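Below is one such record:
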Amino acid sequence: MKENPRDSFLQHALALEYLKLGDKNQARKIFEEILELDPDYVGSYYHLAKLLEGMGEIDVAITWYEKGMETAKKIGDLHSFGELRSAYEELKF
C-alpha cells in the first residue's frame, strides 16, 4: 500500500475493511476519494451508495447509484450496471 497509496483496488479493499470494523465515516471518505480520483472504478459506486442508504442519506445514495449506472454504461460494464440498477430500483420504487 505504501508503494502505491492511490491504487483504487487497494483503497476499495481498505474501505471494505473499515466497513467490517463499523467505521462508516472512514469507509465513506475512502470510497469518495476513490471515485474522485478514479471515476471509472465502478465497484465503489455500489458500495458507497449502499453505505449511504444504510446511513439514511437516501437522496445522496440515489445520486451515487445514478452516477454509477452512467459510468458502468459508458465503460461497457453491464454486470455492474445491472447490480447498480437493481439496488437503485429497490430503493427508488
